[in-house]
């Protein structure tokens, strides 16, 4: 999953120092400026996540989880039942497909499974960027585009991939938006997030939308499992490691899920699961309690397509970090003359600075911070000196530090909930949290801050049992594995 607002999954930077000027419109800075130093100090103070703040966030997350499990609408957290009652065991065999719609990109994947002995024999995938117009188009337009890509991909099947005679191809459909799941292979879209505003889909079964599009394209496939990316990641990681109990996505958007006992879900009284467990999808992007927010967060939220919603996501996910930093830098440029006596108009353009830019700038170890200077010049038309570049780095670090530490507090909140209700100790044994998403994968400072927050909250003895592990592209293979686990055909194992 990408962590850019409008870029592809693996952003590439052609960063070079321009030697000639570029025309750009400038706006005058007020003649009476204030020093940037106190502005930076205020930003750092407003974003601060000391231990008491982290504890409050973790405790509130745990409390909201209990409330959301008790009754629908009981908290900001939806606590959606995934209907995934059986996790992959390693015995799965056969050819299965996955369709992973997670944000600005989607992937189609096929996997040949060989059971315990051979495990994953072969995989192939293709990644496609969704045209921006389809993010604001109709449901039919979006799903027809997806079905076309899937049909073309299926036509290329060959080599190590074999479908047994008489079987229909089965798909695990990873759909990473809030869905009210009604069965393992159906779910009603509650609302679009991550910048999508597709008309005619809310309130509809997204599997039916995909099936209708596949029918229109003459594609004979069956969705046997509908999951979100967090659930797919958990399933994919659990395939290799039985100690995985939590999965977190930290990319363009963010979410988390975990394995829960059915008898710990009051709102599911009377429902049966053969294993006695199921995966619960928190939809934790909607969490909002105790978060340290700045004026830039509030302004960005007010200007968003969903003001007042998804506050945790807007504080910690990749779609928004670059924009928060841009707003802070614009304020410093206008009020504190950060870049001299004028401010380029481009710095006033929302989302022109994206999270991959922040990551690239923070990886700059050169004495003159040339990469920082190049990004500022090429992306937002800013001429900068060494001092202003150092301040830009501080702003980037402040924003991502808050994001990482709050994500870590959220993880501890989930573990605390499990620790209180679990009949087997969570904190006394090896417990694995599977992480995926571009922000986690490609922003090393973010990874470090997550792990530091978890260690700080749990202490050295307990935290050594909590393993935070990258599960790269886990949601795709996880969806294919769940398609296998929930196949309509008799398993030959």
Automatic annotation (TrEMBL):
<dbReference type="InterPro" id="IPR043129">
    <property type="entry name" value="ATPase_NBD"/>
</dbReference>
<dbReference type="InterPro" id="IPR022672">
    <property type="entry name" value="Hexokinase_N"/>
</dbReference>
<dbReference type="InterPro" id="IPR019807">
    <property type="entry name" value="Hexokinase_BS"/>
</dbReference>
<comment type="pathway">
    <text>Carbohydrate degradation; glycolysis; D-glyceraldehyde 3-phosphate and glycerone phosphate from D-glucose: step 1/4.</text>
</comment>
<comment type="similarity">
    <text>Belongs to the hexokinase family.</text>
</comment>
<keyword id="KW-0067">ATP-binding</keyword>
<dbReference type="Pfam" id="PF00349">
    <property type="entry name" value="Hexokinase_1"/>
</dbReference>
<keyword id="KW-0418">Kinase</keyword>
<dbReference type="GO" id="GO:0004340">
    <property type="term" value="F:glucokinase activity"/>
</dbReference>
<feature type="domain" description="Hexokinase C-terminal">
    <location>
        <begin position="246"/>
        <end position="484"/>
    </location>
</feature>
<dbReference type="GO" id="GO:0005524">
    <property type="term" value="F:ATP binding"/>
</dbReference>
<keyword id="KW-0547">Nucleotide-binding</keyword>
<keyword id="KW-0808">Transferase</keyword>
<dbReference type="GO" id="GO:0001678">
    <property type="term" value="P:intracellular glucose homeostasis"/>
</dbReference>
<dbReference type="Pfam" id="PF03727">
    <property type="entry name" value="Hexokinase_2"/>
</dbReference>
<comment type="pathway">
    <text>Carbohydrate metabolism; hexose metabolism.</text>
</comment>
<dbReference type="InterPro" id="IPR001312">
    <property type="entry name" value="Hexokinase"/>
</dbReference>
<dbReference type="InterPro" id="IPR022673">
    <property type="entry name" value="Hexokinase_C"/>
</dbReference>
<feature type="domain" description="Hexokinase N-terminal">
    <location>
        <begin position="40"/>
        <end position="239"/>
    </location>
</feature>
<dbReference type="GO" id="GO:0006096">
    <property type="term" value="P:glycolytic process"/>
</dbReference>
<protein>
    <recommendedName>
        <fullName>Phosphotransferase</fullName>
        <ecNumber>2.7.1.-</ecNumber>
    </recommendedName>
</protein>
<dbReference type="GO" id="GO:0005536">
    <property type="term" value="F:D-glucose binding"/>
</dbReference>
<keyword id="KW-0324">Glycolysis</keyword>
């Amino acid at each position: 999953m990408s962590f850019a607002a409008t870029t592809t999954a693996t952003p590439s930077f052609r960063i070079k120092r321009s030697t000639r000027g570029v025309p750009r419109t400038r706006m005058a800075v007020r003649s009476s400026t204030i020093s940037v130093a106190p502005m930076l100090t205020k930003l750092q103070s407003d974003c601060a996540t000391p231990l008491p703040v982290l504890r409050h966030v973790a405790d509130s997350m745990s409390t909201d989880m209990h409330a959301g499990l008790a009754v629908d609408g009981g908290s900001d957290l939806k606590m959606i039942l995934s209907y995934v009652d059986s996790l992959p065991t390693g015995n799965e065999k056969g050819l299965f497909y996955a369709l992973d719609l997670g944000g600005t990109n989607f992937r189609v994947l096929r996997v040949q499974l060989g059971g315990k002995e051979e495990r994953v024999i072969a995989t192939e995938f293709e990644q496609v960027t969704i045209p921006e117009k389809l993010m604001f188009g109709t449901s039919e337009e979006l799903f027809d585009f997806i079905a076309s890509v899937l049909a073309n991909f299926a036509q290329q099947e060959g080599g190590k991939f074999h479908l047994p005679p008489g079987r229909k191809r089965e798909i695990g459909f990873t759909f990473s938006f809030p869905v009210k799941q009604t069965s393992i292979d159906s779910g009603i879209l509650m609302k679009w997030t991550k910048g999508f505003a597709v008309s005619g889909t809310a309130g509809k079964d997204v599997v039916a939308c995909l099936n209708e599009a596949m029918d229109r394209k003459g594609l004979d496939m069956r969705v046997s499992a509908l999951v979100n990316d967090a659930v797919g990641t958990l399933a994919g990681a659990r395939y290799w490691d039985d100690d995985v109990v939590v999965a977190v996505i930290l990319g363009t958007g963010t979410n988390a899920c975990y394995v829960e006992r059915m008898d710990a879900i009051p709102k599911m009284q009377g429902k049966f699961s053969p294993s006695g467990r199921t995966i619960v999808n928190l939809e934790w992007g909607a969490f909002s309690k105790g978060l340290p927010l700045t004026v830039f967060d509030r302004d960005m939220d007010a200007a968003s397509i969903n003001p007042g919603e998804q506050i945790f996501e807007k504080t910690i996910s990749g779609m928004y970090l670059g924009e928060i930093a841009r707003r802070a830098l614009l304020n410093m440029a206008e009020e504190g003359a950060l870049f001299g006596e004028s401010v380029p108009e481009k710095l006033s353009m929302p989302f022109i600075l994206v999270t991959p830019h922040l990551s690239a700038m923070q990886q700059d170890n050169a004495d003159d911070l040339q990469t920082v200077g190049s990004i500022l010049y090429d992306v937002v038309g800013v001429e900068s000196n060494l001092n202003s570049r150092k301040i830009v780095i501080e702003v980037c670090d402040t924003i991502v530090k808050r994001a990482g530490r709050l994500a870590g507090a959220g993880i501890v909140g989930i573990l605390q909930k499990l620790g209180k209700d679990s009949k087997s100790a969570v904190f006394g044994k090896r417990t694995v949290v599977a992480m995926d998403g571009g922000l986690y994968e490609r922003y090393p400072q973010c990874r470090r801050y997550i792990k530091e927050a978890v260690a700080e909250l749990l202490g050295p003895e307990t935290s050594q049992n909590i393993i935070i592990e990258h599960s790269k592209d886990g949601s795709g293979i996880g969806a294919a594995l769940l398609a296998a686990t929930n196949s309509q055909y008799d398993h030959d194992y």
